[in-house]
Design brief:
mainly alpha; Helix Hairpins; 3 domains; two-stranded antiparallel ribbon; 14 helices; elongated
């Protein structure tokens, strides 16, 4: 290779190292979203998520489809680390090729393939010694690459546990929502169950504020963790009828109803929770590169709204229905529904309805042996008779 060829290889290698290292720093270390148009990690996920999502569309059964999609998040995390490692090895190989000054055992000819092999064994600190750098610059590059390999290993060891710890914290609150708001959760079910647990028969403001305060904190942690580690947006929940987006949408729906006006319910804490949840919905839509759609599907028709009012009224919760309340409800919905719909479409997640027309059984009420127990009518465990597992009357407990 002539002088100009070596110079081009050196510039290309330096550029590749800069792009990969900057991308890894912004993804792993920098705790904020980067708004630059081109980002290597975004390019990687765009080129891998779209075909994976395309394959998922051919799976007809929803539970199997969600199981298939659940593999992408953890697998893409591993593939991203491999992608970075390949970029660093190739970049150092270009620099080593540009500098020259290597000897191979047996005085064999040094070509780019041999230099690429040498870069790989240096990066992973194998140290076979079959190819040896002979010039000061080539030796310095080898030492730098070996140090980079150790740093990369440390990144892998430190990055993955942090991501899974954030995932675990996110899922705990989502699992707790099952008994409070149904499976999948809905705004109507959460409010009705909270009202039903009160001894007075009316909504306990203290309990409601405590629940909303917990979810305000959850929304803030969701925003912080998934901006710092965007791959978490692709991690699915343990149950196919649960998701971080579904929980976030339910909190937005609940606080929207409270802010619209429910007799006897003070909206103070609901304002704070709605603001935090809406902030998370807007920012996380940008994290997953959701696209604007001016005509999202209708989530709450006039007929469904009337049914929702009747369900709430049956639990002693009277939702305002004057013209001002109607306008406020529409305004609040417009502030977030477009964002959560676009995010759901991009991630192939299902948004929860405002209420269930027929109440499904909660996840905690479903088990692999329940049908066998119900078929027999009574199950004998030891010397005790146990009633079939299921809903007793209108009460879930």
């Amino acid at each position: 290779m002539n002088f100009h060829g070596h110079m081009i290889a050196g510039i290309a290698g330096a550029a590749m190292l800069w792009i990969v290292l900057l991308d890894a720093f912004e993804t792993v270390v920098l705790p904020r979203r980067v708004a630059r148009k081109f980002k290597l990690t975004n390019w990687f996920y765009l080129r891998t998520w779209i075909p994976w999502r395309g394959l998922a569309t051919h799976i007809k059964k929803p539970s199997r489809q969600q199981s298939f999609l659940a593999y992408f998040g953890p697998l893409s995390l591993i593939l991203l680390l491999v992608f970075w490692a390949i970029g660093l090895i190739f970049g150092f190989a270009l620099l080593q090729w540009a500098t020259g000054g290597h000897e191979q055992m047996g005085n064999e000819h040094i070509n780019f393939g041999a230099i690429l092999y040498h870069s790989g064994e240096t990066f992973f600190t194998l140290g076979y010694g079959d190819i040896v750098p002979t010039t000061p610059l080539a030796r310095a590059l080898s030492v730098l690459e070996a140090g980079m390999g150790f740093a990369f290993l440390g990144t892998v060891i430190g990055y993955i546990p942090v991501v899974y710890a954030s995932f675990s914290r996110r899922e705990i609150q989502i699992s707790m929502l099952d008994a409070r708001a149904g499976s999948p959760p809905t705004a109507a079910e959460l409010l009705v169950r909270l009202a039903g647990r009160s001894e007075s028969g009316h909504m306990d403001q203290r309990v409601l504020d405590e629940v909303l305060r917990d979810w305000e904190r959850w929304c803030s942690e969701l925003l912080e963790s998934q901006i710092s580690y965007p791959v978490l947006s692709l991690f699915r929940s343990q149950h196919s009828n649960q998701s971080w987006l579904g929980a976030l949408t339910v909190m937005l729906d609940v606080t929207t109803l409270i802010l619209t006006g429910i007799d006897g319910v003070h909206p103070g804490q609901a304002k704070l929770t709605f603001a935090m949840a809406r902030h998370a919905a807007v920012d996380l839509a940008q994290v997953v590169n959701a696209r604007y759609d001016a005509h999202p599907p209708e989530r709450l028709s006039d007929r469904e709204l009337q049914s929702l009012r009747e369900s709430l009224a049956a639990a002693g919760l009277i939702l305002r229905k004057d013209a001002e309340a109607q306008q406020k409800l529409a305004k609040l919905r417009a502030m977030y529904e477009l964002y959560v719909f676009s995010t759901a479409r991009n991630l192939m997640l299902t948004l929860p309805p405002w209420q269930h027309l027929e109440k499904p059984r909660d996840n905690w009420q479903s088990g692999p042996w329940d049908k066998l127990i119900q078929a027999k009518g009574l199950a004998v465990l030891g010397q005790k008779q146990v009633r079939p597992v299921g809903v007793v009357g209108d009460d879930h407990f």
